[in-house]
Fold these 2 entries.
Entry 1:
Amino acid sequence: MDITAELRKIVGVRLSVSPSELYCYSSDASQVKGTPDYVVRPKSTDEVSRIVKLAYENEIPVTARGAGTGLAGGAVPVRGGIVLDMSGMNRILEIDIDNIQVVVEPGIIQDALNDALIPYGFFFPPNPGSSAMCTIGGMIAYNASGMRCVKYGTTRNYVRDLEVVLADGTVIHTGSKMLKSAAGYDLTQLIIGSEGTLGIVTKAGLKIAPLPKTRKLVIASFENAEIAGQAVVKTFSNGVIPSACEILDRVSLQVLKRYDPKLVLPSEGDVLLFEVDGTENSAREAAEQIIEVCSPLALSIKLAESENEMADIWAARKFVGAAVSRLDPTKTRIYVGEDVGVPIKKIPELLKRAQEISEKFNLPAMKYGHIGDGNLHLALFIDVLNKDEWDRLNQVADLIHRTAIELGGTVSSEHGIGAARAEYMKAQWGPAFEVMRAIKKALDPKGILNPGKLGL
Amino acid sequence: MKTVKNKEKREIKRAKELDKSEISEMKGKNQPFELDRRSVYKCVQCGTCRSVCPVFNVVGWESANTRGRMLIIKSLLEGRPPSEDVLPSLASCTTCGICAAKCPAGVNPPEVVEAARAQLVKCGITTEVQEKLRASVITSGNSFGEAKDRTHWLSETERSQLTEKSDYVYFVGCFDSYRYPEFAEKTFKVLQRFVVTLLPDEQCCASPLLRTGFREDAEKVMKRNLEQIRKVGAHTIITSCAGCYTTLKNNYPEELHVISLPEFLAEHLDELKLKKLDLTVTYHDPCHMGRHNKIYEAPRKVIQAICTLKEMKNIKENSRCCGGGGGVRIGYPDISLELARNRLEDVPEGVDYIITSCPLCVRNLRDAGGDIEVIDIVELVAMAME
């Protein structure tokens, strides 16, 4: 069968087999590579269904892709086949304030959704660092979260219903606008985080939340990252739940200050950023409590003085991951071992061991991340023209992953497994991984949906 | 005061296109594709640029955004043989630079794209439109292939008063010379009181050649301008075109002191004695004057000295491209106009004019339609001087 001709019948000019185009779809922000044979940009559920049905009948791999901002190769077609570029399906179909929900297509950009919700006084809380470019579909597929999930939870907590195209092209709905349901398996939750291996999301009903009246930011610095970790544990055990709790180690601080010299950040130590939100009174009380609890451990601690100061710090924080090249143009951030997580109590130990591993392999690393939920973004940067540095980089990443598992944590807290972390799934899950295999087999017997991912 | 003889200029031959054998002689399919690797490898493929690239916003394919272009360039550096297949991606960048402004890793994609285009030219991979543009510039000295005298808009008296030596040269540019001579006239009138002269045989500044990869040809054209500038003995070059400005400032030798018309006007506001006008206008930052050279305040100062300025939705560093630059207007007119239409969406309600300081922006924004007249800043100044 002439697949090109068949695909053209479905999407017309929104099909490409140009080598340059295919090359542009052969990677995301990870180191995983795989070139597709076809790229299509569907515009409707019907088109997706027909494409997937065609792929099913001809046993062609199908990999869904949003903005390609993933850090684990989830959207990379490692076995070739068809890439479904979902970013053109980007409409907001319904803003239903009475039910505190929205219905969107998967290609909508996270910030665009929130821009549309601001006039209503609502927001979609999960906010990855890539919110300016990542799609909601990608966030659902990888259960993305971000800085505020310490209080607001992850994408998983906000999805009410999904329209999903199954491996044979069948279209199902996994939920409804109901806030709760006790009718059978929760297929919505099954699809979230399944990385396009069980079905293709074509619509999503999402819960939204009212925007808080105010936000405040406490900036504290500590002698070392380990003590900062202890301060986080102490804050939580004192009953304060910040809306964000981030760590920036001293290397990250240097990079940020180079990025924006005007940033008001401490000049020494490792820094914690605690954001609290709510009413003016509740936010102030929470901020005061954090200052009281952390002061005995901190080198310095203060409340951000203005909205602008806060906004600048958060904007810079979003960019810290890739900004290392500004400090040293011969270094490039490589996203490996960048998303481990451990139970909060184990954070000081993770930080200590990460530092030891980085020193052992003589590979400097920035340590930053959502320390409030145990998620550490270890940022490794190397000279990409130096093979030895690549070797050491991969060894460090491997050890970091194994350390996280050993501490009872996860190799990925919010970026996903994709192909980059597939080899750790068995070690992390043990016999539970076989259950995942069984589910995959039941829903995708021919293995056409995003093959080569999740270690399945 | 000695007058310049313009006889030679009037005898410029009619533009002709290079014949095919001439073009193919310069091409070399087996030439290696070389580029500063670090400028490319700094890219971490995060996709920040994808969210702001105006061409991608219209086209929708990954190859039409900056990250896609960087990936394609990377593939060429890593040995993929260059072919015509890369042109729709690499030739469709307007070099607006919003990606560079947003890139967390500090990559400068317009520079990388221009360098890649130069390599493609070296490898003999160009579009027909590119070749036509090149032929126009090198055979007629302007990007339109016009045979007409470049200073046709000058009156005989003005022509006779041009000095051979001067501290200031007004570099007119192809657009104002041939498409908007009324801008050239007005600019010259404003500048006359500061005793400016014109180059006796001004050539295209070479921007179209540099932006589309013809670096060797550009060198020749630039040399001709430079020799004349030195001969005139000017310490300052004033230009009202954003494309000419960035080229003269950043591609010509550093010895040149180049100043844009808005900067010059802002510096001499007191002497200009402008009257207030009962107008409300908005200002479009041309990419090559704004983001590339950070000239944001001078045009605003001039405008506010005359009338009320109401800003567009996206301004200064975040200003959206009009779609005219980087060879896209001529190479991909549909995409270019779509960008201009998108830019017009940023225009606020209740303004009398859209002001800008680049004739290419004027043209593209005018061609995009819309109800509000687009004018060059010099026209506003001229109104305030009447």
Note: Chain A is about 35% helix and 20% strand.
Entry 2:
Amino acid sequence: MIASPILLSAIAAFGAILTLPIRRWTRLVVPITAAISLLMGYLAWQSQTGSVSFWIGQFELTNTVTLIGRPLELAGWELQLIAVLSVAGVAAILVAGWTRPGDVFFPGILAILSTTSISLAFETLAFKVMLVEIVFVLTTMLLQGSKYGSVTGAWRFFVFHTLALPFLLIAAWHIDLFQFNPTQPDILEPAVILLSVGFLVYAASVPFHSWIVSVTKTAAAATQLIAFFFVPSLLIAVMLSAMNQYGWYGQSDLPYQWFTFLGIVTTALGGLLILSGRSVARIVAYSLIIDAGSVMMLMGTNSRLGHIGIWSQLLMRFVSLIFIVIGDHISNERRHIDIAPSRLSHILVTIGMLSLLGFPLTPGFSARWFSLGALGRVNLPSALTLLAASAIGWIVVIANSLKSFHKAHEEDKTRTQLTLGNRISIYVFVAANVVLALVPTPLLDVARKIALGIW
Amino acid sequence: MFDISQLMDMFGFLSPTVASYASLLLALLVVVLPEWRGALLALMIQYVVAGWLLSQELAPDVAVLKIAAGMVICLAIYLSARQADVMMTKNDDIRTRIGDSKPSISLTFRLIITAATATTVVVATTSGYLRLPEISGPTSLAAISAMAMGCLALGLHSDPLRAGMGLLTSLAGFDLFYHSLEQGVTVIGMMIGLGLLVAMVISYLSAAQYLPPPDHEENAS
């Protein structure tokens, strides 16, 4: 019998150690890292059935184990989440192999997957929170990469996330104390407040949102996939599992009221700030602030639909960011050789930004409209705030894209003659966008399974 | 045979009250001192004082371990800061780049704001208005002052080296409070590990900030 929490973490950790010495040989390290990530996803998926088959035989798996005297358990939804993160990891690794965000990316992403799976398995909040802090450390290293110069993005990411640590550790102490004194429920009153404050810091609520702008401005595009998809997925999982695990917290009104109120404020602020967005980095940052606000409002609904909306938005955020990362990379490559950004990069970045804001006929549309429906049933003002912020974002993105498209067109008239490869790439990416927009069911199904698993 | 309690006895002249005010003063110096070496020395002594205060609540061996971890943290930061200093001295363009990006918060302003914060903390804790649960008054004063001053340093400094020292001061204050509550060996071990990781991030970002651009290296070679 093999313990899946240990197995999943150990495979990714071993992969990180293995790829560290060969991290600079991109052609070698990319397939190895992607294969390890895929294997991890397969094992996580198979762990739900309790056994895994290879050509060398069949192995029995158990999802419960005790480590350093603490219980470790991976529930079905946690295994599904690890599988999703591992498959998304493969996509991120392939994109990074092309965009080259820094050689520490490849061992780094495996180390993050390893720490993520072990932190999800720990039942004790204090240990979970400390392991999440290790994920922040690793992400900070990736965000900076081997870049010189500005460190603002990586530093702010680290500081703003670390601020949650004291609140959550003290809350964990109160929870432990309550287990020894179950007849004294007043012990839990500070825990509710401390958990809520810590979780709001994790959720990038106002005023803990400013790191988002710094990261989009300074970090390499591919590493932003980690900061804006992998890390938030882990944090949302930690928050929702705490609400589920601690009935007294999940049944208290205070966290939901705070999440709804600060979610509305964050979304509204993102909607206002996006009006001043003139660069891609800023528009993406403000779109992400709107998205973070909407996730908080969805958490505030405390409903089944709200949970599905959260995971749908996170998955579609990943897809949108992939478009932006590829577009941004093409644009940078051309700038390096003193050529204005191509039509292809403009189209990809525009699709990504519109998708992030849930524009119709983009991948993000289904998730955003699902979330609006989930919010509208419980709290109409929050749905209207999200709709207004998204609509402002669409106008700003379209206006800016048209302006920069015309500017680039005038700067480089030769690009009116598109090469065949360029033309095919545009068709492929636009078709992928339309397919993802019109057939969102597979991704929404994954989101539904994870959400219902927690619910 | 060497006994750790003998080592702690060397600080017998300290009383918890004196140690808590010393901690406040050292945290204040971390924020105010313009030169990083002075601030790092203050942080180092802060770890010793915090360790001594912890020895009143925890086993002396564990407190000594915390002090040792603090020394390693300070050493790591010293090495990276020194490396950064060398890079800055060698390359004028880096000095210009970093120099321009620093906010111009004057010493006078830092002094006024830290003095105001320190006064507020002392008045609030000694009057009993603000006191952390489950720990003695002096430890509470030391913990709150270190956390407050650390947060202040985070706000007043933008570069990872100085702001990082603020973060470490803040975490040292939090450690004082948290370990008085939670005394499990595993938790203490993990907190020591986290402290070292935080120091690693600060060292890494401090060094990365002062690295020359790739084309600069090529020209030099």
Note: Chain B touches chain A at residues 97, 101, 147, 154, 158, 160, 163, 167, 174, 177-178, 181-182, 186-187, 190-191, 194, 197-198, 200-201, 204-205, 208-209, 211-214 (CB under 8 Å).
